[in-house]
Amino acid sequence: MWLRVWLACGLAMPLPLSAVTSQSFQVSATITPGCLIVGGGSNYGALAYGSYSALATSTVTAALTGGVTLQCTPGVALSMSVDGGLHSSAGRNLQLNSGSARVAYQLFRDAAFSQSLGISQSVSVTYSDANNISLPIYGRVVLPGNQPGGTYSDTLQVQLSW
Fold first, then answer.
1. Is residue 78 one of the residues assigned to a domain?
2. What pLDDT is recorded for position 71?
3. What is the CATH number of the domain that holds 60?
């Protein structure tokens, strides 16, 4: 009996099955708009006013140089704010590195020095090239002519948001 079952199963022909030859599936990706800080590491640049006589009373200006550039997804609304610095009291101040003498300075967001950049004021950063965005920070100081000689400096914190 066992032999018959085996023979009966062994001689059975498979039934043809219909085959599915094509099928579809979904493919998707989400691209999140944003910005990338390129170069500079934690140093966003420098405002270097230069060297002047301790008796100078001129107004000197500087633009942020040597820092980072940004790349943003086109159309991203980028904004920045700058704090008051390490020596902020009634405004931003440069302080003598080896003393307590101070010289006041102001920041602006345009090269014409017509748009003030207030302490922690959030301002829009406009750009025409989304792959090469520089921070628009300009500084102006009126030399008082009566300060001790030496190097005056300050450190500012920049916050970027998008």
1. yes
2. 95
3. 2.60.40.1090
DSSP for the chain, please give it: -HHHHHHHHHTPPPPP------------------EEEESSTT---B-------TT---EEEEE-BS--EEEE-TT--EEEEE---TT-SSSEEEEETTSS-EEEEEEESSTTS-SB--TT--EEE--S-TTSB----EEEEE--S-SPSS-EE----EEEE-
What CA–CA distance (Å, rounded) separates 28 from 42? 35
At residue 74 the predicted structure's pLDDT band, cuts being 50, 70 and 90, is very high
pTM score, whole prediction: 0.79
- Domain span holding position 69: 38-162
